[in-house]
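Quarterly update, task 2.4: magnesium ion-bound model.
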Amino acid sequence: MAITLDQTISQKQQSWMAKVLGSQTFWILVAVILACIFLSFATDSFATTKNLYNITRNVTFVAIIALGMTLVIITGGIDLSVGSVLCLCSMVLAVVMHAGYSIEVGIAAAIGTALVIGAFNGILIAYLDFPPFVVTLGMLSIARSLAMVASNNTVVFQFGPDHDKLLALGGGAWFFGIANPVLYMIVLALLIGFVLRWTRFGRYVFAIGGNERAATLTGVPVRKIKVAVYMISALSAGIAGIIQTGWLGAVTTNIGAGMELQVIAAAVIGGANLAGGVGTAFGAIIGAALIEVIRNSLGLLGINAFWQGTFIGSAIVLAVLFDRIRNFRLSE
Amino acid sequence: MAVLELANISKHFGAIQAVNDVSFSLEAGQVVGLMGDNGAGKSTLVKMIAGNFRPSHGIMRLDGAELIMHRPVEARQHGIEIVHQDLALCNNLTAAANVFLGRELRRGFGPLRVLDYKTMYRRAGEIFRELKSETRPRDLVRQMSGGQRQAVAIARTMLSEAKIVLMDEPTAAISVRQVAEVLNLIRQLRDRGIAVVLISHRMPDVFTVADRVIVMRRGRKVADKPIALSSPEEVTGLITGAIEQV
Ligand SMILES: Nc1ncnc2c1ncn2[C@@H]1O[C@H](COP(=O)(O)OP(=O)(O)O)[C@@H](O)[C@H]1O
Ligand SMILES: [Mg+2]
């Protein structure tokens, strides 16, 4: 039977099922679930309410920043400054509240700081054509140093009149016993997922990562979108900083040190491609979850913590290896 | 009356004089073949008409009114469409997403407007059907053949009724059969009263569809005459510089 042009055009190339099975995120999710099942049987302490509460909450700090990082990575950029920005925003919040201001003022100051840093990164990258790696590497150094300046390198653990509100914000569980940070993470993931799939902004983020020149030629406001993306990345670090401050109840100038690598790892394990053009919000969360489960399980299984880096590193390589194999098959 | 008039248009990038004092006009329903060696300034010239670059000197008039554009969107609002030389496609997006890039359809209202996938898929499918191209709107451009990619780039020009369609090497990377389709499409556009500029290296393409030929050399216009009064030999001479100017 001859296939008409109409039939070819309206044919769907991939079924829903094939799409899911072909996605890296799906297989990482499977890995996370299998690991959880295994750990529930292999140890007594994994599937306890307390441990699960801890795991889900620990995931959130990396996951929230990985959401912002995923946007940056989709445009083909990178943001190395997030760990330091988290630290600076936490410190701004702490210092402002310590000085006697309300929690609202503290949060506004922290978020304002994040947005200014993001805009600075973004403008240098988008309008002055600086390489993202260099600009954000510089900011990694600057932001942490500013945090030290702001606090005189001391630990802040008293947050003025709204001290208890801040601790409840980050440490509480206001909704069905789910840790608050987890709720924030879910809301932010839904928001970013929606933006990527359903808005023109999200479409442009993908277009820039796919072919920046094509995006420019067709009239996509490439520069503005890039600035926005770095602002969102810094903002996500700032939000994570605020929540983490409330949870820890103290801020030191070394919180978030080295966190950029975990965040990038989470995004990449979750399917974001550092070459740009590919990534999802759900993937960022799943990537962060896998890292946390690996960390948690090593402890529970009594494996020396020195092995942690090896396992997480292997997870990164394996996740990307999977992607390579799939691309290889596609190009055959 | 001319649809588009260019008067003494120049464009330089730093010290490079890409386009130098070029004037011509486009008539509705006329196909103009624009020829010239690599680096002659053809792409730069059409990019100025498409709103990608602003001329350094000179003015453009559309239907008699001065045309000043800051962004490609403005050119499209004026009914000027372009197929870029390297097609300007995003490999990671679907065919439909590429067709609508920069002018996505949305539904809902106010700040709650979301992408209207359904209509964009349907509309893109209709255009591919019209182009007789076996291109599926939902496929990623990454997996497409040269002809399908070309169809996606050309489909962009058919989203709205254009006055002027600029095609920068639209037949460079495709098969003979597909070249015939593109040339057919150009005739259809002409018959609908659209002014077409066809940039091509292929002499036969230009001599089959164009009504007029313009030759550029090193940024300058060296010939502008009806195709019937020229010949492939003459055009070749003009491109290489063996013939100075006619
Ligand atoms: N964006 C740009 N920046 C600097 N120089 C450019 C740019 N675009 C084109 N040029 C230069 O302008 C000249 C004309 O190029 P182009 O218009 O692409 O020629 P053609 O399309 O006829 O091959 C070339 O010397 C090219 O290097
Ligand atoms: Mg060219």
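Highlight for this quarter: Chain B has a mean pLDDT of 92.
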